[in-house]
């Protein structure tokens, strides 16, 4: 049996009547090493993100944002041994339908 978990803190606040900011923080962990997935026990990675949503209609939104992921601890050591920097930052954009 493999024991892994994650936790997330998410909040949102209005910047205007139609624009909302959503900062997020996510943490992942593993209870034991998972060799086939290159994961070490303990806290494995952190992710920080922010999205900005614009409501176009009550059922339609567009959004954009930035996500930064960083490996930590033994998982970072495994990634670096394999030639990875252990961190990545990327942009996101999308459309959300509500129903």
How would you describe this protein?
It contains one helix and six strands; from the N terminus they run βββββαβ. The chain is mainly beta. It is 9% helix and 61% strand. The protein has one domain.
Topology of helices and strands:
Layout: E1 4-10, E2 13-14, E3 19-30, E4 42-57, E5 60-71, H1 73-81, E6 87-97
Antiparallel strand pairs: 1-3, 2-3, 3-4, 4-5, 5-6
Outline of this structure?
By secondary structure, the chain is mostly beta strands. Helices cover 9% and strands 61% of the residues.
The parts where pLDDT drops under 50 for at least 5 residues are none
Largest sheet entry: 6 strands, antiparallel
Number of strands: 6
Question: Helical percent range?
Answer: under 10%
Mean pLDDT: 94
Topology pattern, helix = H, strand = E: EEEEEHE
The general outline is: elongated
Instruction: Give the N-terminus to C-terminus distance in angstroms.
Output: 38 Å
Structurally, how many domains make up the residues? 1
């Amino acid at each position: 049996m493999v024991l892994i978990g994650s936790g997330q803190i998410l909040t949102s606040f209005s910047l205007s009547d139609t624009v909302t900011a959503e900062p997020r923080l996510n943490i992942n962990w593993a209870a034991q090493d998972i060799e086939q997935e290159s994961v070490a026990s303990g806290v494995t990675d952190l992710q920080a993100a922010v999205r900005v949503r614009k409501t176009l209609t009550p059922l339609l939104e567009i959004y954009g944002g930035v996500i930064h992921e960083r490996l930590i601890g033994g998982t970072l050591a495994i990634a670096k041994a394999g030639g990875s920097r252990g961190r990545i930052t990327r942009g996101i954009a999308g459309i959300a339908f509500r129903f």
